Amino acid sequence: MNAEDSIYLTSDKKQFYITDFEKLSFLRPNDIWSIDEGLKEILSLINLHQDFQTIYSKLFRVKSTDEIYLEGESYLYLTAFKKSWTELEIKLNSVKAECSSKNVNVIIEICEPCDNPNFENGQFSTRDIACLKSPDYFRIRHFKIYIDTTVSAQHDTFWNSIKSEFS
Fold it and tell me: Tens digit of pLDDT for each residue in 39-56?
């Protein structure tokens, strides 16, 4: 494997992310690192594809009626084997097109491998989840697809479009 190929998903890396996904699936729902309610089914559906893998996600929701929630972002980070990179990009662009037709502005970014911003010199080493423990967690080429709005219905459209595209 050459250096360029090493930035894409491999069988070992897929297993690494699946193991972390399973650990996150068993966290208490109120744990800040648990998979957001309503996303587990969608993420599982994507992860069933042998060449795609989710690595990070967030579902926007208003936390309570007495609190103003100013950050309106829902996002999904996904990666793929090099041979399937273009296929994943096409799927994400289909999600963007479907959402755009419903006046939902979706942004897609290609993210190059980078340090894990959640890892701070082992500060979270007591938590057995790779998104905190591994400095290499984001050292993989991936897509970030997201929306940033406080309109809940637009978030529903976004996630429903993702679910539909990967079904």
Answer: 999 999 999 999 999 999
